[in-house]
Specification:
single chain; 211 residues; mainly alpha; Cyclin A, domain 1; 9 helices; Cyclin_P/U; cell cycle; protein kinase binding; Cyclin
Length: 211
């Protein structure tokens, strides 16, 4: 699983979510923050003892390639991660935990959203964990979010707008720099889904996932 995989033929939400999680992971991997987190954070099933040798981008690509789930599942997985991280004593999203959090959130979203999905044994192989680990992570995740799995159309639409604004910010980052452009932040929001890319730049703010 160490090889990088291409996201070019994947749903755009996959690339956006992987970029977002990479930013959060890099931020939380800073030496000072990680030292504090490791000292203060409670033991978590999502924290690996060593850093996986696969990037968030490649891991996300692997999930998208083999899980066979609908694009909406990735939006719902993002919602579940946000709900988890808003709770007290939530695990920090860093290089030691992001992969397990991601595969478990997608698994929960697939079971909630799709009529047909692969079982835990299959997801365990995709995620590079054992079946007992996958089963335990799923149960731990469900309790951690308080079994709050229902997503209203309004909530789904809101998070779609957040991911859309993140996509616009990523596109602005790839464009030639302009003198008046503010540096990209961790996450972005749009005041209105129909705003222009220039308006999106002015409304970039840090998202809860950074916590």
């Amino acid at each position: 699983m160490a090889e990088e995989e291409d996201l070019g033929d994947m749903p755009r939400v996959v690339g956006v979510l992987s970029a977002l999680l990479e930013r959060v992971t890099e931020r939380n991997d800073s030496a000072a923050e990680l030292a504090v987190a490791l000292a203060a954070a409670p033991a978590s099933a999502f924290r690996a003892t060593t850093k996986p040798d696969i990037s968030v981008r490649a891991y996300m690509s692997r999930i998208a390639r083999f899980a066979g789930c609908s694009p909406s599942c990735y939006v719902v997985a993002y919602i579940y991660l946000d709900r988890l991280l808003r709770r007290r004593r939530a695990p920090s999203v860093d290089s030691y935990s992001v992969h397990r959090l991601l595969i478990t959130a997608v698994l929960a979203a697939v079971k909630f959203m799709d009529d047909i999905c692969y079982n835990n044994a299959y997801f365990a192989k995709v995620g590079g964990v054992s079946l007992p680990e996958m089963n335990y992570l799923e149960v731990d995740f469900l309790f951690a979010v308080g079994f709050d799995l229902n997503v209203s159309p309004e909530t789904f639409g809101h998070y779609c707008a957040v991911l859309q604004s993140e996509m616009l910010c990523l596109e602005l980052e790839r464009a030639p720099p302009a003198p008046a452009r503010a540096p990209a932040r961790l996450h972005c929001y749009l005041a209105d889904q129909d705003d222009t890319a220039a308006a999106a730049t002015s409304t970039c703010t840090q998202h809860q996932l950074a916590a």
